[in-house]
Amino acid sequence: MILFSAAVALGLAAVVIGFREVLRPAQQQRVIDQLPFMSLLRRPTPMGGVFPTLVSAEAAEDALALLDMPLDFASPAAPTGIETPVAVVEAQSSAATALPAPTIAPTATVTATPAPTATSSPPPPTRPPANGPPAAARIFGIRHQQQTWNNCGPATITMALSYYGWQQDQAFAAARLRPNREDKNVSPGELARFVEEETDLRAIVRMGGTLDLLKTLVAREFPVVIETAAMFEAYDWIGHYRALVAYDDAYERFYFFDSFLGVGEGAQGVASSYAEVDANWRAFNRTFIVIYEPQREALLRELLAERWDQKKAASLAFETARLEARQNRQDAFAWFNMGTALVALERYEEAAAAFDRANSVELPWRFHWYQFGAFEAYFQVGRYDDVLTLVKINQNSAPELEEPWYWRGRVQEAQGQAGAAAGSYRQALAYNPHYDEARAALARLQ
Fold it and tell me: How far apart are CA 243 and CA 224, in angstroms?
């Protein structure tokens, strides 16, 4: 019995050591997906691998009322003229850079069809049938960029711009978007703003996309970037941008030029199943960025339909997230997406309740590096201590993120601490001198 007990103990120790030390994080997750109890053996990461709970279980129950509460989303008025999306800053014509025709010869990571210039529209493909996009389509002319350290955002937006003949590399984009090498996040709005300020193109950011919409955009040759979750070998859960280049219904796959994983077999794109894409995309409320030429805006409006209007896109995203939360009340992503959509709709009390529920379940510990809707919701309803708690947790794990410093300043300003607020805004600008919100806040104090 003694020998048997010792053998069992040694076996269990071997399982723990093997799981922790031999398997990579992504491999561990695949084991956990099949055997959930194995999560107990995972080596602790910062904060135990998940974002710490911020509210009591009783407070989190209040959010359940959102599952059945009617929300009066008024239909947006039909657009009457050209409008600049709220998520994007109006392009400065004096700063716009003309896009030359591509001069780089195709390589193994470059599609063989040359990209169009910025001043001439590409020939339109066959119009998708009225009942949906064609069974397969591909965008030609996008050049791949293998990202440098922590640089998926600048690298991916550079890839999307290359379709229009953009010749700058990811280093140019990074100098603007993340001048601090340790910055962990570039938001979709920052990427869209970069496009509008540095080129003569436009960009639109919307939440609540669908797989069919992605297919339609590809079929009509609109470069689209999605923000998605990823867990690469040897890496924990992270946020990641991907440039969509093709899809094929016969295989039920999307194909991406991925700044981390490359261009896939035959340079056709890294293949991901429809189910896998949607499962990872929904961690960011199915947010997408479309880059387009001004003369094609009318067509893009037609393709996006209701989602052209930012408020309507948010309401559709909310309804999708609420349906997922009804199906699984412990789905942290669904609750967080409800909160993000409600912030966009300026319904901060309900948003705060949704974030409470999300933060009471289990979110990946890096989650609040990438999305700051909870900061805004808690701030708008006067829950300053909760904002500062989010700030502190983020700064403990990623002190060089500029956004938490900005929200710390907002709280300090609201509490009458003008000097401290100015210091926080300056710290945010020290990490990212191009952070317009912090610059505006500092100017307001001065």
Answer: 6
- Please tell me the predicted confidence (pLDDT) of residue 310: 95
Contacts of 275 (CB under 8 A, 6+ apart): 252
H helix intervals, 62-187:
152-162, 170-177
77 has pLDDT over 60: no
The pLDDT of residue 51 is 54
Tell me how far apart the terminal alpha carbons of the chain are, to the nearest angstrom: 77
- Rounded Cα–Cα distance for residues 144 and 108 (Å): 9
Task: Select from 64, 140, 55, 85 the least CA-distant residue to 301.
Answer: 85
Residue 426 has pLDDT above 80, yes or no: yes
CA gap 136, 146 in Å, rounded: 26
Please tell me the distance from the alpha carbon of residue 314 to that of residue 305, in angstroms, as a whole number.
13
- Contact (Cβ atoms closer than 8 angstroms) between residue 317 and residue 348: no
Position 65 pLDDT exceeds 60: yes
Lowest mean pLDDT among 35-39, 82-86, 318-322, 428-432: 82-86
Q: How many C-alpha atoms does 69 have within 13 Å on its Cβ side?
A: 13
CB 205 within 8 A of CB 219: no
**Spatial distance between the Cα atoms of 268 and 266, rounded to a whole number of angstroms:** 5
Q: Cα–Cα distances in Å, from 88 out to 54, 78, 102, 126, 205?
A: 32, 20, 26, 30, 8
CA-to-CA dists, residue 347 to 207, 277, 301, 340, 426, angstroms:
16, 29, 26, 10, 30
With beta carbons less than 8 A apart as the criterion, state whether 180 and 432 touch.
yes
- Burial class, 279, CB count within 10 angstroms (exposed 0-12 / middle 13-18 / buried 19+): middle
Alpha-carbon dihedral of residues 418, 342, 132, 269, nearest 10 degrees?
A: 50
CA distances, 37 to each of 27, 34, 112, 227, 365 (Å): 15, 9, 49, 30, 19
Grade residue 33 by pLDDT with cuts at 50, 70 and 90.
low
For residue 263, pLDDT over 80 is answered with yes
Residue 206 scores a pLDDT above 90: yes
Contact 219, 137 (CB under 8 A): yes
Structure tokens at 209: 């996309």
Q: Which of 423, 396, 398, 429 is nearest to 408 (CA)?
A: 423
Which pLDDT score is estimated for 23?
72
For residue 178, give both structure tokens. 């993340």
As a whole-number percent, the residues of the chain with pLDDT over 90 amount to 60
**Can you tell me the distance from the alpha carbon of 212 to that of 222, in angstroms, rounded to the nearest whole number?**
14
Q: What is the DSSP letter of 237?
A: S
* Diameter of the chain measured on Cα atoms: 83
Dihedral sign, CA of 269, 304, 113, 97?
A: negative
